[in-house]
Each structure stands twice: as C-alpha cells, then as structure tokens.
Amino acid sequence: MNRAVFLALLLFVSICGLRAETDREYVIVSGGPSLMEWEKFKAEPHDRWWGNFIRSARFRIQEIRKELGPGKRITWLVYRPAYARRAAQMRGHDNTDVIANIQSVRDKYGVNLVWFDQGSDVIAYLNGGLPRNQVKISGFEFFGHSNSRCFMFDYSNEIDSGSKAWLHQDDLKGIHRGIFAKDAYIKSWGCHTGESMSKAFKAATGKRMIGAIGKTDYSHISTTGEVLVNGRWGG
C-alpha cells in the first residue's frame, strides 16, 4: 500500500470514528412534584421541596457534561404541567421562579430542554426527536415518582394520591428497536422500577435498565445531590 492510499484510509477511519462518537445523545427525564395542599397532612408527605427531580437531574447533567465534554448532546425532558401547578401554589408564599430555575440549568450546562405534557411524548421523543438512524441514545435516566410498573410524571399533583400522566411498562413496546447505542447506560431513579419495569424494558428494547428494588429517597437532594435506595439496585 503506497503512502497516499494509507493516509487516505487513515483519514477515512478517523472521520468515521469521530462521527460514531459525535452522533450520540444522552437523555434525562424529570417527572413533576406533588402539591403540598394534599401532601402536608399525610404521615409521610411527598416532595416537601419542589425541586427533588430537578436538582437530582442537574447533578447528573453536571456529571455527564464533565464526562462527555462541552460539545456533546444532552437532552432534558421535563414534565411542565406539574411545575406550573406547583409554582402557582407557591405564589405568594415563596418567590422562587420555578420555570426560570429549570431554564437556568439548561443555560448553564448547554442542554436541550424539552417540555412534555404526557407519557406518549417521551416515547415520541426517544423514537424521533432526532434521526435515530444517525443519532443513537447513549444514555437514558429517569428522575421522578414511580411504582414497580409505571413512571408517574405527576403523582399527587393534578389529583390527590394519583397520577394522570404516566408511562406504563406495557407502553414500552412502543419504543423502536435500534435507537439505543450498544453500550447505552439506562437507569431509573424512581421507586420499585427494578421489581418489574426493568424486565419489561429489557423485553421491549433489548437493553438493561437499572432500577430500584425498594424505595428511593430524595430527602438529601437539596444538600448533597444524592438519591438513596432503601433496598438495592437491580434490573
């Protein structure tokens, strides 16, 4: 092989390698907080602080940005209706601008912030938010309320102790095969998802989703950024 052909081949391999590394996207999903008008009277109220699922996502975004570098794609899906309702409840008692705080994370870490309104929006983004034949999902993480079979985006937010926006494990079959990178890292930081939903995720996508067997605890998020598990991680 002469030198000119060798250099051309080397350039081609380098370009292909750069493209393979560039055409990847990391996706974070944040569900919404409950409303304290219902939760404050319960023995174990949820979401005393509105930012549990925002601060936890921010810490992960910070870690991922440091790992991937400034030019890589990170997309953050946030369930807007729950934060709009919580902000309205706080008005007059707390001057925090909830929506502006969320947008400030977008601006600081250079992420693509996508507001969504229902569970099907999440699947729609995963499948077609970017051309998946060109841009594979290298990571997917969820922060929010959940049970063993369901991501609950608005638990105790629109109705007391219930959810009107969710993603059930039976809905996972709507995720297209082949949208995830071979080495994709997938984790749910919600309660109990390692007990059933992780198996459904693997069956639907061929990818392992790490999930909690037991409850997760966000009570230290505001100070340490740490999500604890009262059980173990499985999936």
Structure overview:
It is a single chain. By secondary structure, the chain is of the alpha/beta class. The protein has a single domain, classed as Rossmann fold (3-Layer(aba) Sandwich). The protein contains 8 helices and 10 strands. The strands form 3 sheets. Strands 3-2-1-4-8 form a 5-stranded parallel beta sheet, with helices on both faces. The protein has a 3-stranded antiparallel beta sheet with strand order 5-6-7. Strands 9-10 form a two-stranded antiparallel sheet. It is globular. The N and C termini lie far apart (49 Å). Residues 5-22 have low confidence and may be disordered.
Structural class based on helices, strands and sheet pairing: alpha/beta
The CATH topology is given as Rossmann fold
Total DSSP helices: 8
H-E order: HEHHEHHEHEEEEEHEHE
Can you identify the CATH class?
Answer: Alpha Beta
**Rounded mean pLDDT score:** 90
User: Nearest-angstrom radius of gyration?
Assistant: 19 Å
Largest sheet: 5 strands, parallel
How far is the first residue's CA from the last residue's CA? 49 Å
Number of domains: 1
